[in-house]
């Protein structure tokens, strides 16, 4: 449990002691029970933000460790992780799992940016079904290299349905805005600026085809939606389909305003 946060002990008659000097602001302290066999339940407030897990959000501190811990804890609990309208630095590749649901503050253009995740040359990898990000600006280092966000399921060889969703997000300066192993993704009111590929779609190799025809790859890629989006200064493509079954592509919806080369 993050240092300095309040916990609720459900059994008020229990006897507990806190073992100090264990962990740091990005990990968990240990609470020992004086009664053998006594259980301890911890309740995390649904309003917990990433600052509660030690993220500085000052635009200079490397928040990668705290971001990864916060994302994985809240993902495991299937709770939304909220971010402030500030800038964080992600100075290494991070991997987050579980029921991923993160929300920032602000708009989806550079002129109305609130929550900025400056990942530079590194990638945020999401492993799990239906990850969702809302009102975040993902900022890379260059449109000539790198990937902002990579998504795949926890069992990509047998479960193809990623079904990721990005709402009112901006992807700025990366070769790939998002890469994905599997199928199913929606961008709603998102902006893309200085990129070469919005979405890279790939499949695991080898792949174990599903027994259900509709779930198999024989019928091609499907479920890629760009709804009311904007594109600016791309000099590239919206979708790059690679890997298995790359020539059989269907189920794409694209609406919005392309102000691009």
Describe this protein's structure.
The chain is mostly beta strands and 261 residues long. It is built from one helix and 18 strands. The strands form two sheets. The chain has a 16-stranded parallel β-sheet that branches.
Figure out the total of helices.
Answer: 1
What is the first-to-last residue Cα distance? 49 Å
Mean pLDDT over the full residue set? 79
Following the backbone from N to C, one meets helices and strands in this order, namely EEHEEEEEEEEEEEEEEEE
- Which geometry do the CA atoms define? globular
Number of strands: 18
**Main beta-sheet annotation:** 16 strands, parallel
Runs with pLDDT <50, length 5+? 1-6, 8-30
Fraction of residues in helix: under 10%
Q: What is the structural class?
A: mainly beta
CA radius of gyration is 20 Å
Q: Tell me the strand percentage band.
A: 35-45%
Task: Give a quick set of tags describing it.
261 residues, mainly beta, 1 helix, 18 strands, two-stranded antiparallel ribbon
Short summary of the structure?
The chain is mainly β and 261 residues long. Helix content is 5%, strand content 39%.
Give the topology.
Blueprint: E1 16-19, E2 30-33, H1 64-76, E3 81-82, E4 87-89, E5 94-97, E6 101-103, E7 116-120, E8 124-127, E9 132-134, E10 137-140, E11 147-152, E12 161-167, E13 170-181, E14 183-188, E15 191-202, E16 224-232, E17 237-241, E18 252-259
Parallel strand pairs: 3-6, 4-7, 5-8, 6-9, 7-10, 8-11, 9-12, 10-13, 11-13, 12-14, 13-15, 14-16, 15-16, 15-17, 16-18
Antiparallel strand pairs: 1-2
